[in-house]
Amino acid sequence: MEMHEYWEEFTGGEKDQFQRAARRLLRTTFIVRDKDEDSKKLYYFVSNQREALSLYLGYIGFDLIVDRENGVIMLRNLDEGGEFGRVGSNRLMLRKVDSLLLCAIWTIYDDKIHSGTMSRKIFISVMDLNFTLEKFGVKDVIDKTTMSDSLKLFKKYNLLDVVGKVGDPDCRIALFPSLLYCMNDDEFEMFLKNATNRMLQRKSGFNSEDDEDMDEEI
């Protein structure tokens, strides 16, 4: 079917949902089924209308991954070697400190899943996160403000949610299964080895002015 044929078959409500889903994916990359009720509705709509949305998004160089087991829908770039190769430039550049924090969060989530945790939405404390950063040897370079800013960034892309205020004893971080798409085990090992060494070399003089030459493409 052509895009106009799908569109003509949609009801008014379905057209609204289609537009909301496309805008949400372009803004946040991920839709996580178990995040909240609104996300759940969009998740099931996209799952049911995957062909139409893939066709529409394909015009601008994107496709969809629908992971029904984990309840995640991801917007992805089409093959960079193909017709839409330039779309690969549409990637988020993270500061090294953000990348290290993301590695720590990914490690916690991956460990929880492999330990047999059934829930795909996992809650941790800031203490849990600090403990993992300490194991990496980089806890001293990530202060409360830096952590808060990084968590806000990851929340924007539906990788996690923050319940409460960072620094408060009752603050909790909800980790989403979209984290599984950030990297795999081999990528994590290689990145952590290189990034930790570079971060520790800068440890005594780290500041925000270093961001430009410490960016990492994710």
Notes on the protein architecture:
With 218 residues, this protein is α+β, with helices and mostly antiparallel strands. It contains eight helices and eight strands; from the N terminus they run ααβααβββαβααββαβ. The strands form three sheets. The chain has a three-stranded antiparallel sheet. Strand 2 and strand 3 form a beta hairpin. Helix 5 packs across helix 6 (126-136), helix 5 crosses helix 7 (144-156) and helix 5 packs antiparallel against helix 8 (185-201). The two termini are 34 Å apart. The model is unreliable at 81-89 and 206-214 (pLDDT under 50).
Give a summary of the structure in a few sentences:
The chain has 218 residues and is an alpha+beta fold. 48% of the residues lie in helices and 14% in strands. The protein has eight helices and eight strands.
Structural class assignment: alpha+beta
Separation, N- and C-terminal Cα atoms: 34 Å
User: Roughly how much helix do the residues carry, as a percent range?
Assistant: 40-55%
How do the strands line up in the largest sheet?
A: 1-3-2
Strand content: 5-15%
What is the radius of gyration? Answer: 19 Å
| Average pLDDT metric | 84
How many H/I helical runs?
A: 8
The low-confidence parts are 81-89, 206-214
Give the overall silhouette: elongated
Q: How would a crystallographer describe the biggest sheet?
A: 3 strands, antiparallel
Order of helices and strands: HHEHHEEEHEHHEEHE
Total number of beta strands: 8
